[in-house]
Fold each of these.
Amino acid sequence: MPLQRAHTRGQRGFTLVEMIVSVGLFTVVMVISLAALLSLVDANRKARAIESVMNNLNIALDGMVRNVRMGSDYHCGGGTLMDPQDCAGTPGTSIAFLRFGGTEGNPDDYLVYSYDAGTKRLERQQGINAAAFAVTAPEIEIDDLRFYVVGSQPGGGDTDQPKIVIVMKGTVGSDRVRTRTTFSIQATAVQRVLDI
């Protein structure tokens, strides 16, 4: 008597071909999902690197604007840095001013912010004769930095409250990021002490 297989309706399994097709489809879906996940991780890493660099730029710019706002006797352009001077028509690449609480005429009480075209960075001097140090990160390349100063005549010799406009353009990036992001920032600071 030949042996017969008894198959009941609820006990039938998958064939080998069905298993191979289902494993193949699962593999394709997982490869596509993994590629999308890796792309998201890379985009997140780039965004964090750019955010870190932009935070450095914001801190440097905020510190400069706060110091400018609290200062007085602004000098922009050529000449003696301790003599107040406007540069509204022809902007300067540096600004010098008497820091808050400083003594007029003391070169150590003046702050100088300047643009170094060689390193493409914003620099600061804590005194007219002090060495300059960079306040922006190396990942920030400033292509153009201009200072506009109006109303800085000594002793309130004009009717304008001293106002400084800072215009900055450049790019940011990181060693870990292949793309670079451009920025264009304008900040305005008005002398806090009334110049009447």
Note: Helices lie at 16-70.
Amino acid sequence: MNPNSETVAPLKVVIAKPGLDGHDRGAKVVARALRDAGMEVVYTGIYQSPESIVRAVIQEDADVLGLSSLSGAHMEYAQAVADLLRQNERDDVLFLVGGTIPPEDAAVLKDYGIDEVFGPGTPTETLVTFVFEHARATAKS
């Protein structure tokens, strides 16, 4: 290793499933794709509250938060998480939402502070590229 080269830690991503949505296959596929791309991924598991999701972002000092929702409650949970991120001065995190999100809801979610919305069938390469191009926080060394 070149001692003059700068060593940069990988981006840290938290993937979370809010509420009573127990369908986590998509979240696990996304987590694996991001991990395979070299990111450090923390999957919080299912049935998470907005408070526990934001607590994980803070404790892990995450660069990116991915919220996965298939239950139809994406509007309420995304808004609650966005509000808590702001209250905890972590609105610098790249905030993504994925799942079965109607197109008309995507614009409203962005008004809440979500950076991007990914619907069903989005290629994982698209998501990985977006994260690398848009992560606001620089990876910590």
Note: The beta strands are 12-16, 40-43, 64-69, 94-99, 116-118.
